[in-house]
What does this fold into?
Amino acid sequence: MQQLANITVTPKPGHLFDSWANAGQWLSNMQLSGFEIYPHGIVKAKDIPTDLVGGFHLQSFPILTPLLYNDSKRLMQIFGDWQTVEQFYGGTDADHIVKIMVSQLNIAAELNAPYVVFHPMDCDMEHLFCQQFPWTLEDTFKACSELLNQALAQSHFKGWLLFENMWWQQSFRLDSRCEYDKLKHLVNYDKCGICFDTGHMMSTNSKLTNETDAVKFLQRSLQQLDLNQEIKTLHLNSNLRNNRGGHEQHNNCHSYHSPSHYENCQGFWEQFDVALKHITRLDPHNGFHNVRLTELVETIQPSYLVHEVSQNSLFEWSRTINLQRACMDKQNGALQTQQMPRERLTA
It folds into this structure.
């Protein structure tokens, strides 16, 4: 198992490093094997040192279907004008999203990334707070599989495609095993698997208030899913109710132009800022700090474990990762971190 940290590439390595040399030195000091790369904006493979890459996270499109289906009416309802559409997506038609996916899959291939992570999800800001989306999970899977199938057919990526669980309704939450089976059937690619995110799974249960109960819940969920062999990568982080000010979900969805949460906003970007703050409260990516994680990790036996935690400062980021690693070592014999991802990923 290799242990990684996530980082956004712009092509600068995140917001805490001024160079890739410093990022590489930090990895060495932390005794981590590499970064899970999340590209943002225009990024090329030559911008990133290959030896620092442990995985690759594809760009997310949380408001997916309006542009994927070239739904001009819905796009104007959400964004107001085509300039804002282009600012948000980077383009104004479905071909743009497909081209981004193809480009990122090819970058992952050039960087020799053994896996890419994809969020099978769809959302809109109108129903974000109440989570009562007017479409089905099958609709989301249909849209995501259409996007992936087009992109995969045009790319030369040959590694693992991993679906990451989310906490949004009508998205890939892993509420049951059949979710994975259905999605895998729709995607025309042989090397599919799961990226299991502990924090996202915890966010599906608003009753969790302490780490001990959270880990028990995760273990029960994994036992019911019976998908451990499909989990190639583990995103390790903690989302607890008492850390995010309550599970802020409401039942009073109104029309798009007058939801109470956006009533003081002027235009799309102010509304989007409100939505982002809400998501961050529910999904803060805190680290585990005082619970035994050994059995959880050994149950999954992932090829890669990514410490996907908040990065407010280099000191706090490093401290949080070290605390999680200490939680993994809380047993009579320390959990051994073995360098053996390629064998399992290529099996």
Q: What stands out?
A: The radius of gyration is 20 Å. Confidence is low (pLDDT under 50) at residues 243-258, 332-347. The first helix runs from residue 20 to 30. The chain has 13 helices and eight strands.
